Amino acid sequence: ISTSTRNQLIDKINQAKQNLVQHKVANEVNISFITNTSLVDFFNKIQYSGSETLLHSFSKEQYYNIGLYHIKDDQFETYFIANIDIFDLAFAGMLEWEYTLSADITPLFGAPVVETFDPAARTDTQVRSAFFKDTIASNKGARILLDEVGNERIIYTFVNQNTILITTTRDALE
Hints:
This protein has 174 residues and is α+β, with helices and mostly antiparallel strands. It is 28% helix and 32% strand. It has six helices and nine strands, in the order H-E-H-H-E-E-H-H-E-E-E-E-E-E-H. The protein has helices at 6-22, 39-45, 52-57, 87-97, 101-104, 170-173; strands at residues 30-33, 64-72, 75-83, 115-117, 127-129, 132-137, 140-146, 152-160, 163-167. The chain has a seven-stranded antiparallel beta sheet with strand order 1-2-3-9-8-7-6. The chain has a two-stranded antiparallel ribbon with strand order 4-5. The two termini are 26 Å apart.
């Protein structure tokens, strides 16, 4: 993945999904992509538009992993996991990135979410501009983005003080 552009990266992940379906990989199998691209280069490739705060929070070794978690049949959840050195910066950086996170990681994590179903919204459709909200997943605090019909689209959590995990559903967190 080291010399991949954004589109090449997306193509490689989609190709990996197709190969996994053809080879009938067992459910609940985790497939990681080996990368020799620095974390900063990876963020450049996905056209990261968040703040520098998050980038400064990552560990000096810049350990990260992107991969697929096989749910069943042809259903895969994409995940991103990275080590962080400064939890407070990472937490603040993630909150800032929420405004563009969905667009930045498209289509690796699916189409961008522009609206969120909100039962408390005072509109006819109970839909308003996309936003993350607090939730609990795997007994951990997390932030989740729902789409306009209430489907989970992006969820992230701090696994511990040194690790962040971004994925598409609660199932992939477990």
